[in-house]
């Protein structure tokens, strides 16, 4: 074994090599020279103007732009309006510096795709990349240059409403999507007018908000930060992300928007990030509420010094920094650095050379046929089949009479989900409408049954009557759109209102009832899991919700999605995630083991779980070699066979466990996966490759190392089931 000292030296060398690669983004002498020249002409007032981001417009806006007081807008859309404002900046301000227009393009611009938590269940990064290309194109032709996306916060607490905006609980899967989304938004060239710059957020650890309460504090070890919460940000950076957003939460006592350790030590120095950091909405001013600044001036100094370059809506940089420089309390050099970073991204976007967007393009681009088709495809690939007893699904198209019931069956606005940007509810096709158009000959009876939230059971009888008369019932229940997303934490995760009572009444009829769930987070549905015959987790699927769900219900699409997040049985189990530690007393029969008296420790549905209309059998897991040196690759092969009657897609998942290490390691960690297509009866050899260098972990001093020793490998269709074998990592 090499000593710790040599190991560290080696690691530093390795990581600087990686940084060299990562740092290749945004390095261009010509652009730096242009920035030097421009900076040399700017007054201090014009400089702080570049650091100021404003939401929307008012009667003073034009004049402020003319005076160089605004560097960026958010929430201004439409190329006609952005061009108008841009013209003032470029043609009427002293230096003609273009504005960068930002917006929350979270899951589509006008064509709305599934919420991120849903599309994370596709396990299909190429597809998601294409979805973001579409979102970027639609946003770009509407005058937008910059999206506050992807949200790459790992979240293990479904009480937190913003879990809907991210990719679930796993750092590996989260990193795969972070990369795909950045590449999708940004394309190969930011100056291409159909691409936009991305903004991974919220840096960092916002997803760990205590008790799932939004904006709440986070206290965690640096080890945890590095192993779980930072990796998706690093993946986004390595993919070339041009901006980052600082989070609201405090991390170990230091608010993220004043956190020098995360923003400067890690992001800028260790990772060599050369883009700019924007604050979150008023998060600089909020340093006062956090109690780490007594005045707005102090807040401004702390945020700027920590590494926040642009101030979103606190107006502290634009209003206070000049005086601070004049009084000698702040160095102008620090402001110059922030301005340089903002200008750099504006140059890379090509805004100095092509500041305006062609206003005619939106007609052919927004909501066009290909975009809708892709949205439908992503939507159906996001639907997770949780239960399908006696092959109740798919339903036969030849049925005579169908009941469609539930407060979400025909609710256009809810299906768009949180942060639906410019999506319009009138452009949504609901489940009811989609089934009606798919099956024009079937008698379809719709009953709302109840509201999402209130307590009236007035329509229960009618719903029961229709269920009894029908050959099958599609019952669509869940959360309202506003119940997830920002500032939408919940302490109860059961179906709101009297919906569960409605589900019970209908299932009691003994007739076939398919429960379709729409929600922005895992809900606690133990009764439904035990008693319903078929359950589809449909999340909020966007503009094409209905057609996608109808495709799955009637067998035009065989579900293939796998959960990106564990479903707890009850709120008391939270936080619950598959990659936990074993403890010294793993749950068992005996009393003094780590468990609950009143519920199992296992989730209701585990990470990676999802059924298909067909079945897949795994056999013959083999390794190329059972001893792998630290710089080598683990290469596993497994045979997967479709043993059912339907063609289908399967996500072959690879997990590892470090059996004995110097620190406790998780019981399982996802390290690879492959989505494959198998026709009925077909068998394929699936090869999965993992770098041994990715099987390490951090100590509390932020050193990363791969320890030699025995590991277990698991390959299967979710984080619980599958084949396993052992392998060993050796020094060399
Ligand atoms: C606050 C949210 O936390 C952030 O995600 C979003 O991008 C900004 N508001 C701007 O809308």
What does this structure look like?
This protein is of the alpha/beta class. Among the domains are: 371-566, Glycoside hydrolase family 3 C-terminal domain (Rossmann fold); 616-730, Sandwich (Immunoglobulin-like). Helices cover 31% and strands 17% of the residues. The chain has 23 helices and 25 strands. The strands form seven sheets. A six-stranded mixed sheet has the order 10-15-14-13-11-12, with helices on both faces. The chain is globular. Bound molecules: 1-deoxynojirimycin. 1-deoxynojirimycin binds at residues 74, 104, 148, 201, 280-281, 486.
Short description:
Among the domains are: 371-566, Rossmann fold (3-Layer(aba) Sandwich); 616-730, Immunoglobulin-like. 31% of the residues lie in helices and 17% in strands. The strands form 7 sheets. A 6-stranded mixed β-sheet has the order 10-15-14-13-11-12, sandwiched between helices. Strands 4-3-2-1-9 form a 5-stranded parallel β-sheet. Strands 17-25-24-19-20 form a 5-stranded mixed β-sheet.
Summary tags:
732 residues; alpha/beta; Rossmann fold; Immunoglobulin-like; 6-stranded mixed beta sheet; 5-stranded parallel beta sheet; 23 helices; binds 1-deoxynojirimycin
Please write out the topology:
Layout: H1 4-22, H2 29-41, H3 44-50, E1 52-55, H4 61-66, E2 72-74, H5 79-92, E3 100-103, H6 116-119, H7 125-140, E4 146-147, H8 171-186, H9 222-229, H10 231-238, E5 243-245, E6 250-251, E7 254-255, H11 260-270, E8 276-278, H12 287-290, H13 296-306, E9 311-312, H14 316-326, H15 332-348, H16 362-365, H17 369-382, E10 384-388, E11 401-405, H18 412-415, H19 431-438, E12 443-447, H20 460-469, E13 472-478, H21 499-508, E14 513-518, H22 526-531, E15 534-537, H23 545-553, E16 616-623, E17 627-629, E18 633-642, E19 648-658, E20 669-678, E21 683-691, E22 697-698, E23 704-705, E24 709-716, E25 723-730
Parallel strand pairs: 1-2, 1-9, 2-3, 3-4, 5-8, 11-12, 11-13, 13-14, 14-15, 17-25
Antiparallel strand pairs: 6-7, 10-15, 16-18, 18-21, 19-20, 19-24, 22-23, 24-25
This protein binds 1-deoxynojirimycin (NOJ).
1-deoxynojirimycin binds at residues 74, 104, 148, 201, 280-281, 486.
């Amino acid at each position: 074994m090499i000593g710790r000292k040599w190991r560290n030296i080696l690691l530093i060398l390795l990581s600087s090599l990686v940084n060299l690669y990562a740092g290749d983004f945004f390095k261009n002498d010509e652009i730096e020279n242009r920035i030097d020249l421009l900076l040399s002409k700017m007054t201090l007032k014009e400089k702080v103007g570049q650091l100021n981001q404003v939401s929307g417009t008012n009667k003073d806006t034009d004049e402020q732009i003319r005076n160089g007081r605004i560097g960026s807008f958010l929430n201004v859309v439409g190329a006609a309006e952005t061009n108008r404002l841009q013209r003032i900046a470029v043609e009427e301000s002293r230096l003609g510096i273009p504005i960068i227009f930002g917006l929350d393009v979270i899951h589509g611009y006008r064509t709305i795709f599934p919420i991120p938590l849903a599309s994370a269940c596709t396990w299909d990064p190429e597809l998601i990349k294409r979805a973001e290309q579409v979102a970027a194109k639609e946003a770009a032709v509407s005058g937008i240059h910059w999206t506050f996306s992807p949200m790459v916060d790992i979240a293990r607490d479904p009480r937190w409403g913003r879990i809907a905006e991210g990719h679930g609980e796993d750092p590996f899967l989260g990193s795969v999507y972070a990369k795909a989304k950045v590449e999708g938004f940004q394309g190969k060239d930011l100056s291409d007018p159909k691409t936009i710059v991305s903004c991974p957020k919220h840096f960092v650890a916002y997803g760990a908000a205590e008790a799932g309460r939004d904006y709440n504090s986070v206290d965690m070890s640096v080890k945890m930060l590095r192993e779980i919460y930072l990796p998706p940000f690093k993946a986004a950076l390595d993919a070339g992300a041009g901006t980052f957003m600082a989070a609201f939460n405090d991390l170990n006592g230091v608010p993220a928007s004043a956190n020098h350790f995360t923003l400067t030590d890690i992001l800028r120095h260790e990772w060599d990030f050369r883009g700019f950091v924007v604050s979150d909405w008023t998060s600089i001013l909020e340093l006062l509420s956090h109690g780490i600044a007594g005045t707005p001036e102090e807040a401004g100094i702390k945020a700027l010094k920590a590494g926040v370059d642009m101030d979103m809506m606190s107006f502290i940089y634009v209003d206070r920094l000049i005086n601070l420089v004049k009084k000698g309390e702040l160095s102008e050099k620090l402001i110059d650095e922030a301005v340089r970073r903002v200008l750099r991204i504006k140059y890379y976007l090509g805004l100095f050379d092509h500041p305006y967007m062609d206003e005619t393009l939106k007609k052919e681009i927004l909501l066009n046929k290909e975009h809708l088709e892709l949205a439908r495809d992503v939507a159906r690939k996001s639907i997770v089949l949780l239960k399908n007893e006696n092959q109740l699904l798919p339903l036969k198209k030849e049925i005579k009479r169908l009941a469609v019931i539930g407060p979400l069956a025909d609710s256009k606005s809810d299906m768009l989900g949180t942060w639906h940007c410019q999506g319009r509810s009138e452009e949504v096709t609901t489940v009811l409408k989609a089934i009606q158009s798919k099956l024009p000959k079937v008698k379809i009876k719709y009953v709302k049954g109840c509201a999402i939230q209130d307590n009236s059971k007035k329509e229960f009888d009618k719903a029961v009557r229709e269920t009894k008369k029908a050959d099958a019932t599609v019952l669509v229940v869940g959360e309202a759109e506003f119940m997830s997303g920002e500032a939408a934490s919940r302490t109860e995760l059961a179906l709101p209102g009297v919906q569960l009572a409605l589900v019970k009444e209908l299932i009691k009829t003994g007739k076939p009832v398919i429960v379709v769930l729409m929600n922005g987070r895992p809900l606690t549905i133990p009764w439904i899991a035990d008693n319903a015959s078929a359950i589809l987790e449909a999340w909020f699927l966007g503009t094409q919700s209905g057609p996608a769900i109808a495709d799955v219900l009637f067998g035009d699409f065989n579900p293939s999605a796998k959960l990106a997040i564990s479903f707890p049985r009850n709120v008391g189990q939270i936080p619950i995630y598959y990659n936990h530690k074993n403890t010294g007393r793993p749950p068992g029969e005996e009393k003094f083991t780590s468990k609950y008296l009143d519920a199992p420790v296992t989730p209701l549905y585990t990470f990676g779980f999802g059924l298909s209309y067909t079945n897949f059998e795994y056999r013959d897991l083999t390794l190329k070699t059972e001893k792998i040196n630290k710089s080598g690759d683990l290469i596993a092969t497994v045979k997967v066979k479709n043993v059912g009657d339907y063609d289908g897609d399967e996500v072959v998942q690879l997990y590892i466990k470090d059996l004995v290490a110097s620190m406790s390691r998780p019981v399982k960690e996802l390290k690879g996966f492959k989505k494959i297509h198998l026709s009925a009866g077909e068998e394929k050899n699936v090869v999965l490759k993992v770098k041994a260098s990715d099987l390490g972990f951090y100590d509390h001093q932020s050193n990363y190392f791969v320890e030699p020793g025995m590991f277990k490998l698991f390959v299967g269709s979710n984080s619980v089931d599958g084949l396993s074998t052992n392998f060993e990592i050796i020094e060399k």
